[in-house]
Amino acid sequence: MRGGCHGGPGWRHRWGLHEIRYTGMPLHMPYIAAALHIAAAVAALGSAYIVLRGYRVARDRRMLWSGAGLLLVAVASLLEAALYVGLLDSPAIVAADGFYVLGYALILFPENIVGGEGAAAITLLGGMHFAGSIAAGVLALMLSISTPVSVGAAFLVLAVSHFLDSVIAFLDIYNPALTIAAALLRITGLNILLIALLLPAARVGRGEREEA
Questions:
Q1: Which of 22, 17, 16, 189 is nearest to 1 (CA)?
Q2: Where are the domains of the chain?
Q3: Do 115 and 51 form a contact (C-beta atoms < 8 A)?
Q4: How far is CA 88 from CA 30, 78, 79, 197, in A?
Q5: pLDDT digits (tens, 9 = 90+) for 111-138
Q6: Closest listed residue to residue 2, CA positions, set 63, 10, 191, 60
Q7: What's the angle, vertex CA 35, arms to CA 29 and CA 36, rounded to 5?
Q8: What single string gives the DSSP state of each residue in 77-105?
């Protein structure tokens, strides 16, 4: 990934066989997005460790399922981070979606995360989600000015998703509808972003082939 290509501002990303330039996008934008997802993965891993450590003491299977779900969410976040910085191609988003769906399903399956360890994990994860909602909201505002509306809209959807997750965590609202809504918003936001990036890629790739 490189900035300032062809004499103009932008950054490059490899989608399949095409190397595409997205003009008007801040050079640091993909790295900020990757950093946010790495931070979310670290929070999920920390939460999973706390919950699974509690399982060793309490032997409550609900904590085991929740810990497994948190591990899958962490893997999904790492896949997205790798996608943003160009280590993986667009099919990674499909895998990330799958891990998110399965991870949230496992977290949702138990009635709640029990014990003091679970409360500590929820506080950690809730704080990261709240920070993520603010960061994604700021990104949405910044990007709506200099990029296609769909890019800003994607981060706005992600901001709402993270905010819902923080509300669920901080208020101990183990409501399946809210959890499903947050997961669906996350997936929707990611796919809006994917489409917003793939459409310009297709247009540029087609234009380069016509010029050749």
A1: 22
A2: 28-201
A3: no
A4: 13, 11, 8, 14
A5: 544 444 455 555 555 666 666 566 666 6
A6: 10
A7: 90
A8: HHHHHHHHTTSS-THHHHHHHHHHHHHHH
